[in-house]
Amino acid sequence: MYNPFPYSLDNKRYHTWNYYLHHKFGCKVAKIALNGGFTCPNLDGTRGRGGCSYCMDGSGEFAGSAEKSITEQFRDGVESMSAKWGYTKYIPYFQANTNTYAPLWRLKKLYTEALSQKDVVGLAIATRPDCIPDDILDYLEELSNQTYLLVELGLQSIFDETGKRINRCHSFNEFIDCYTKLTNRGIKVCVHLIMGLPGESREMMLQSVKTVASLRPECVKLHLLHILKGTRMAEEYEKGLISCMSLEDYVRIIADSIELLPPETALQRLTGDGGRDSLIAPLWSLKKFVVMNEIDKELLRRKTMQGSKWDNVHS
Known about the structure:
Layout: H1 17-25, E1 29-34, H2 70-85, E2 89-94, H3 104-115, E3 122-127, H4 134-146, E4 148-156, H5 160-165, H6 172-184, E5 188-195, H7 202-215, E6 219-224, E7 227-228, H8 232-238, H9 247-260, E8 266-269, E9 279-281, H10 288-302
């Protein structure tokens, strides 16, 4: 089948992460999620307590165990990935909690250990925009000049009222300040957004997408809001104070978002992974391939693709 979208190895009508990695490295590349034993400033009281209301024990549900060394976690991940794909190159991904929230000496130790592993082609680091002081920013710039580096910044929404409701404990202006500092130094950034946050309308979600699109980030992750056991949001859900998006509504908002994003921005994620043991809702999200297929069908039905409405971002 003819695919009119250029940044794709298959029939996807958007810039897939798989295409991005193949184009950059010339081979299959997989991310290995790691747990560096970090905490978070809105867990430990620096900015707040309890963490984001949707978050279960920080983040990185599928990262390794902090009780194991980085080398052990990496080898566990490689064993799993090689069974699935055979020979692969790797990007260690510091995923759990806030992965620049530590003294510089500790970050250097952990990052260096990760980068020293066999067949590693770069490094990805998930963090918050209020957790990259100047000494760490300098170090990240050094790393980006030595290897492929992707800093993943959690934004979730551009609206500060939403941030307060979910106990995000940083502002949109702090995000912009951090994003600008990183990109001015040539550091690649992936921006995370969550669709379906409490109190947000379709128009608000799309305004977040438009604002991020105007920044032209290297990558974007679009997450589905999950209600997970043990979170404050789970308590709100059980009391009927919040609800989740239907599959149909989610597919439509993701298709709308894809149309607004610039074609050159890679889309790392279009939905989210919630563990079967921890997920309360929406249960339809457990069928990830169904969700992805429905997104593909919606774009085909519209005869549209990533960037089709990119000009609307500037209007």
